[in-house]
């Protein structure tokens, strides 16, 4: 049993779909005067599937043992959204923009966080989450880094702020716990800092376009001259934003050359197995997307069915009341009894449909979650491509430096006694080549690292997908069967009650 | 019942087991066939009559009838048997496209069959000559009668509407405390009228939801079918055990989709249609209420006129006018008419009281059957669904252990 005592704590996850079902309890009072209240056995609706839990999957590593006491346990809750004001730079002008902060509570046994039974909270705003997400993408290239919730805006015609904040709150909770269930990322320093350090989040935003532009702009003239040596460490970082304008241009040129040039690049993606897997992933994503859509339609159809049966039941309740008041004949009283039975059955069936649908949403949500995983996979694959591109670019650089050196050496050797200016130039170029060579080595190492990550993650993806989908199918099927049986019992009961009307021989 | 001959005639085609010594009349409406072309196209039905009643031509007779023939019969009965709730007819179809759909044709055939059978099993209506004509006349005769009908007996819809409005406004007037003098105002009858009008509202709502429920079954069926297809594609992509599980899931979804479509049809024919029939029956009662109001009005007016004539006659007699003889004659005629009108009105009242009892009993039976079929259908569907999903479980178990 995976469900824990902690699962039931105050801010458990809220299923956004479930909250959209109309609550029929308000019309309960109208029913109760006509219908008998549901028996206690019926009032306790249990989910049929064996893996209960409220939509969270604890890390598969700890599924056998009680996760609570396992030293790997890490779980977060998001609660208590509060509105805060961003102070305007000029304090004479009252007010600024408002934003929401969320209380993030963590419970863990992990030693990095202080060992067993640790619990702590911080307050964060959504911008902080974006920062965390960006930093993780940078630090964990090649991994399937869980995708953060959308930035999104609130369209007041579509939903109210309150509802938006609620949705965001549960999306954040889901996101953080997904991070926690990633075997590598859960140990990241960025995550720890995010969860632990109170006050302002001490993580630099990745994209600081202004200063980077400045950075890039300052270096640009020298780079254009092709003179300045690039710092090796910098060379193999991905070109981003305004930072390395020139490098971005170079890499773009390289990628165009890759696609259209007559000469094959010096290094290509050769891993056939990977390429096949990648193609499969594309196909899989396509099918997953379409079944996810159909699942949504199915859920809607189930919901509508339940609502309509409920409305039918309500109509019969009203009819029953009406005919009871106006009853003049015995035949009417008989009909009243029949209609009451129909109303009762319909109302019960409607409740069952609502329950069933709540469970269906929970199970089929796996499909939707894996669409997120596919996004993460695509990022991991593009990390790989961009790392490869960097290597290719550096190799091209190196090759062109070499050829310039050779040309200069050839030219200067013709001059007796050497050519001092040319000699100087040759030395500069040789220095640049050395730096570029180092950068290339770093880039190659990085590329290989990312390839390794891709491989590991694909294996993990296969394993987890198999388990998650099997659970999903089992849960879905068990629920459908269980609730169908309950509904059959309700209708069979009504058939019994109206048995005297059965046609002979039917 | 004040008839001298009390004939119990089993008029339902549902009980073919009636002994041959007993008088019986059974009718069925079958085999809809599309005839004609384009705008003129229509559906014809076979009407088969089996009877040993002496008034009929033979033990079995088959005629071809179309919808407007049934309308003719209904209108004739409505004219002749005021006070009796004439069984309702299915509506004319408003939507052209729908008119020849298989479902609509079947719904209409079923409703027409029920219509004729109800007439055949009503102790008064079954004796109608118009019924005999309808069941036996050849097509040309029917066509002639049908075309005669328009203009003479047919009440214009506008007139009927006005009568309804009058009755309805009377109801609200009573509620508001205003009394209009030329209407009946016995408390029981008021209660009955209120009941009828409110009942129609409730039943219309029930029928509307029943129809929606049919649609929901179709929608759920469609979504399961689409979901199943998508599952199969995913399964093919997955491959291995899990892939097979998805494919099986897809196949089951598709089979359940078929079952849902079937149940939707069943629901339409055995639950929604009876509710619609109930609504139509109540509307027929409203027509009878209008007739009663009409008869009452006539009776009152004639009584008024008669009184005036009486006063006039007395005056003439006092003045020893030579117009006395003429006036006396007129007075006698008027008196006869007035008595006739009173008799007509009282017949309607008496018949309505009987009819109400019959109506309530009939409806309890009709709805009981409909509820039972509804329950059985839903139970059958739910069990199919449970079985289909349960059958998948062993395969899923195998999948998770692999």
Automatic annotation (TrEMBL), chain A:
SUPFAM superfamilies: BAR/IMD domain-like, PX domain. Residues 80-202 form the PX domain. One of its GO terms (cellular component) is endosome. GO terms for molecular function: phosphatidylinositol binding. Residues 1-34 are annotated as: Disordered. Residues 21-33 have a biased composition (Polar residues). Coiled coil: none annotated. InterPro entries: AH/BAR_dom_sf, PX_dom, PX_dom_sf, SNX2A/B, Vps5_C. Residues 9-20 have a biased composition (Low complexity). SMART domains: PX (SM00312). This is PX domain-containing protein.
TrEMBL record, chain B:
It holds the Pfam family PX. GO terms for molecular function: phosphatidylinositol binding. Coiled coil: none annotated. This is PX domain-containing protein. Residues 23-142 form the PX domain. Residues 1-23 are annotated as: Disordered. InterPro entries: AH/BAR_dom_sf, PX_dom, PX_dom_sf, Vps5_C. GO terms for cellular component: endosome; membrane. CDD domains: BAR_SNX, PX_SNX1_2_like. PANTHER family: FI18122P1, SORTING NEXIN. PROSITE patterns: PX. It comes from Rhamnella rubrinervis.
């Amino acid at each position: 049993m995976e469900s824990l005592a902690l699962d039931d704590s105050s801010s458990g996850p809220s299923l956004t779909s479930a909250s959209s079902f109309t609550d029929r309890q308000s019309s309960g009072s109208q029913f109760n005067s006509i219908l008998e209240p549901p028996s206690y056995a019926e009032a306790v609706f249990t989910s049929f599937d064996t893996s209960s839990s409220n939509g969270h999957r604890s890390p598969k590593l700890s599924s056998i043992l009680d996760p609570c006491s396992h030293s790997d346990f890490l779980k977060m809750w998001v609660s208590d959204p509060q509105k805060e004001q961003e102070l305007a730079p000029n304090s004479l002008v009252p007010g600024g923009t408002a934003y929401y902060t969320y209380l993030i509570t963590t419970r863990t046994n992990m030693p990095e966080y202080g060992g067993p039974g640790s619990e702590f909270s911080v307050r964060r705003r959504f911008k902080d989450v974006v920062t965390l997400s960006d930093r993780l993408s940078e630090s964990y290239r090649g991994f399937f880094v869980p995708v953060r919730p959308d930035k999104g805006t609130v369209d007041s015609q579509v939903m109210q702020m309150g509802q938006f904040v609620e949705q965001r709150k549960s999306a954040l909770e889901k996101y953080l716990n997904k991070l926690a269930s990633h075997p590598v990322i859960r140990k990241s320093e960025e995550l720890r800092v995010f969860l632990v350090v109170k006050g302002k989040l001490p993580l630099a935003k990745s994209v600081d376009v202004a200063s980077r532009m400045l950075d890039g702009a300052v270096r640009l003239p020298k780079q254009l001259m092709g003179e300045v040596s690039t710092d090796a460490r910098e060379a193999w970082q991905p070109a981003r934003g305004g930072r390395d304008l020139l490098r971005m241009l170079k890499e773009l040129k390289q990628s165009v050359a890759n696609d259209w040039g007559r000469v094959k690049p010096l290094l290509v993606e050769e891993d056939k197995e990977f390429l096949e897997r990648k193609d499969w992933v594309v196909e899989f994503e396509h099918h997953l997307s379409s079944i996810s859509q159909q699942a949504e339609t199915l859920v809607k159809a189930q919901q509508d069915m339940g609502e309509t049966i409920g409305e039918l039941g309500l109509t019969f309740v009203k009819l029953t009341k009406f005919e009871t008041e106006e009853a003049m004949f015995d035949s009417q009283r008989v009909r009243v009894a029949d209609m009451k039975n129909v109303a009762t059955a319909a109302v019960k069936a409607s409740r069952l449909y609502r329950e069933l649908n709540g469970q269906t949403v929970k199970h089929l949500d796996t499909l939707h979650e894996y669409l997120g995983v596919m996004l993460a996979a695509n990022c991991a694959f593009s990390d790989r491509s961009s790392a490869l591109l960097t290597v290719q670019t550096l190799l091209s650089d190196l090759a062109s430096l070499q050829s310039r050196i050779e040309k200069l050496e050839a030219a200067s050797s013709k001059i007796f006694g050497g050519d001092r200016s040319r000699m100087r130039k040759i030395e500069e170029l040789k220095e640049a080549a050395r730096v570029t060579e180092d950068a290339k080595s770093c880039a190659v190492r990085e590329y290989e690292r990312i390839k390794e990550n891709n491989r590991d993650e694909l294996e993990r993806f296969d394993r987890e997908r198999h388990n998650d989908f099997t659970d999903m199918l089992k849960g879905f099927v068990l629920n459908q069967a269980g609730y169908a049986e309950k509904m059959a019992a309700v209708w069979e009961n009504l058939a019994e009650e109206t048995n005297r009307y059965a046609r002979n021989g039917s | 019942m004040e008839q001298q001959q009390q004939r119990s005639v089993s008029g339902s085609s549902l009980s073919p087991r009636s002994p041959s010594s007993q008088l019986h009349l059974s009718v069925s409406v079958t085999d809809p066939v599309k005839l004609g072309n384009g705008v003129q196209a229509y559906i014809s039905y076979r009407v088969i009559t089996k009877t040993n009643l002496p008034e009929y031509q033979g033990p079995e007779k088959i005629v071809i009838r179309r919808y407007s023939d049934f309308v003719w019969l209904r209108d004739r009965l409505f004219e002749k048997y005021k006070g009796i709730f004439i069984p309702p007819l299915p509506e004319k179809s408003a939507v052209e496209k729908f008119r020849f759909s298989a479902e609509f044709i079947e719904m209409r055939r079923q409703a027409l069959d029920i219509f004729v059978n109800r007439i055949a099993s009503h102790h008064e209506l079954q004796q109608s000559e118009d019924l005999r004509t309808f069941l036996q006349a050849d097509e040309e005769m029917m066509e002639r009668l049908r075309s005669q009908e328009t203009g003479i007996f047919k009440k214009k819809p506008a007139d009927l509407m006005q009568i309804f409005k009058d009755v309805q406004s009377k109801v609200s007037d009573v509620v508001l405390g205003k009394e209009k003098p030329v209407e009946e105002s016995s408390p029981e009858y008021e209660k009955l009228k209120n009941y009828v009008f409110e009942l129609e509202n409730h039943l219309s709502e029930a029928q509307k939801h029943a129809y929606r429920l049919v649609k929901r079954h179709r929608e759920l069926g469609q979504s399961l079918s689409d979901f199943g297809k998508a599952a199969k594609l995913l399964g093919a992509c997955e491959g291995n055990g899990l892939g097979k599980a998805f494919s099986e899931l897809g196949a089951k979804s598709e089979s359940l989709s078929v079952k849902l479509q079937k149940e939707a049809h069943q629901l339409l024919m055995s639950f929604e249609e009876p509710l619609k029939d109930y609504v139509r029956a109540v509307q027929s009662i409203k027509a009878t209420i209008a007739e009663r109001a009409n008869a009452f009005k006539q009776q009152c007016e004639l009584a008024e006129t008669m009184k005036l004539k009486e006063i006039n006659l007395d005056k003439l007699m006092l003045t020893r006018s030579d117009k006395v003889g003429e006036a006396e004659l007129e007075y006698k005629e008027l008196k006869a008419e007035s008595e006739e009108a009173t008799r007509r009105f009282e017949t309607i009242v008496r018949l309505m009281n009987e009819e109400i009892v019959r109506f309530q009993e009939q409806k309890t039976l009709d709805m009981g059957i409909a509820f039972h079929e509804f329950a059985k259908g839903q139970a059958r569907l739910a069990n199919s669904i449970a079985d289909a999903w349960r059958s998948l479980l062993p395969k899923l178990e195998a999948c998770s252990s692999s």
